[in-house]
Amino acid sequence: MAVISIQNVSKSYGDNNVLRSVNLEIEDGEFISIIGSSGSGKSTLLNIIGALDTSFEGHAYINGREVRSLDDHQVSKFRNETLGYVFQSFHLLNHLNVEQNVALPAQFNSRNSGREISKLVTQSLDRVGLSHKRLESPLHLSGGERQRVAIARALFNQPKIILCDEPTGALDSQTGEQILALFERLNRETGVTLIIVTHDAGVSQRADRIVEIKDGAIVLN
Fold it and tell me: Which CATH number is associated with domain 2-220?
């Protein structure tokens, strides 16, 4: 069953057609990569899948919801509960320690008690092997450790889908390999749907399926 269904999606900035009639189905639990050169439209497509961009033509159904039908409050709640995000530059807050960074999604979910938050932080850090670093500052971590904290934060709400934009781009090759192995294990053990945007063919080949985008259109699916 498709957890993501992109139907005839087009996106333009003025005369610049960033996406052109894109159709894409992603099954629940798949690990896919979206590959393309800089400016091909891959990050724009990821933003639409991640409900970060709702200004487009066509339809995007994510976990059964058409994201353009949601108001601002609903789409924020949907993103927080359904999706996890991992970016190239980590986006950690240096004035917070590791466990506080991992728990940031709880600020947007009033249902979690303090005990539940602590349990979710522990589970997330255990999955990425960083429980022993929970009180450290991000400033004292290596690049690979910071990216694992970012992954733990993405796991915090036990999302259905994790979206990754060049997650190994700021890492050396050995550390990047470790991060990719972690993604593979998470996909296998938790069944989370995993989507990695990359321009690196070596990274893309780790996925179960490669989607190539060129000049705003999918040329390999």
Answer: 3.40.50.300
